[in-house]
Amino acid sequence: MDRLTIPLPTGVACASPDATLVERGEGYALIRSSRLAVLHGCADGQFYRSGHNSWSPSGWNDLAGPPLRIPTDERRATADDPAADDTVRHHGSWMGSVVDEVDGSGVLVGALEGGHPRVRADEDHLAAFDESRPALWLLAWGSEASIFDAYVRFLSDRARTPGRAPRVWCSWYSYYEKVSWDVLLGQLPGLAQLGFDTLQIDDGWQKGVGDWRANEKFGEDLGARASDIAALGVTPGVWVAPFIARPGTPFLTEHPEAFVHAPSGELAIAGYNWGGPYYALDTTHPLAQEYLRDLARSLVDAGIGYVKADFVNAAAIDGVRYEADVTGDDAYVIGSRLLREALGDDVYLLGSGALIIPSIGIYDGIRVGCDVAPIWKNYATEDRSDAEARNAFMTSVARLWLRPLIDCDPDVVFFRHMKNLLGDREISWLQDVAAVAGFKSSSDPLEWLTEQERSEVAQWLARRETVEVVGRTRFRLDGRDVDFAPGLEEPEHCYPVS
């Protein structure tokens, strides 16, 4: 049987025997196929890795170098796709690109539809495959800008309208799980005056991860707290992790059958946090679906207008489900759509830990990097998914091409110098990447800010910058040239006090 073959300027693409050429145009082809291999001719070039979820390392890496990956099994289970890990070959989720560093030309292969699309690359080949069913692939060739623009163009039909991101104050990076209503109450009027239009209570308000009732620190009444926030003209927001539960929480204890299981029959571990494992809701199970609807209704009834749905990648883990033929990526979409529909379009839905391409058209925004921290580089770790400002910055910069498709949240920025090991240059990089992304948020408590810093926050929130893309890392922000390349370089010093 003849295979579908497409000549390229620097090589050739060849599809598996089941391939169908759906459409071909100038610089691109749409191919439905279970496998697609490209002889790219860019041995000295770079590979663009699209990580599995929000926290997964993403960005450009030399083809001749080692793959960008998370080094430890436990962390990989939480922040990447363990089944797709490859210690030798470059690899990624849903799409990948290879670009020649000399002339800037390259090739991109990206899935538009699929059950579990993945890519791999080495110095000779760019391979795309979906072992669950034939995927619909975009094969694009040309300049780096043109091939990414082509992928955005073909994905745009499914996108919600981006650009409605609120100005968010989030409790996490100041109070963490020790947050309480007494602590927040004194912040509210001042935060509203600075220009924050949304106050998002993060982890620490609930009885447990998987038990989404307000705890005693919040008067066991989320609706009352939301009303207090709304009375100041600020949208009440809340953190939930809708697709996971920790041991001992009511729904997991009463209905373990509604969770993903390992082939051995035990509950499948979705990841590790809070000092132990957590488990993933089986979004194909009727009881799990009703649980999600009830959770969403409870948030809407409480008056919540902004939901940060965290650890949502857990819905996609490998395992045994009620509907056995549903892939992890499909299960993620099922759960995410159900959550979206139950919340309604008036609630802003942010996904963290989100699968990148499958989230488009469902979530209003997604986190595009790992957690930030008030430290640029932690000398004790080389894990690109660890909570560091540099890690969050690098992955967020690499994903700014997604801006036309979905709101991109690079995580909070800092204005405070109190309890902060970041220098002014690093603080400005974080502020600028948030401005380019169009998603502005902070966690700085008022009492940690000087009067000058409060003024800077207010001015930053008030600006609605115009953004022009100049290059891979270069932008024009309200006419000001911004280049993020220096922030992607290895820092001169490993120690934060250097």
UniProtKB/TrEMBL annotation:
Domain of life from the UniProt record: Bacteria
GO biological process, any: carbohydrate catabolic process
GO function term, MF aspect, one: alpha-galactosidase activity
Keywords: Glycosidase, Hydrolase
Pfam families: Melibiase
InterPro entries: Aldolase_TIM, Alpha-glycosidase_related, GH, Glyco_hydro_36
Residues annotated as transmembrane: none
Keyword Hydrolase attributed: yes
Coiled coil regions in record: none
Presence of keyword Transferase: no
Record protein name field: Alpha-galactosidase
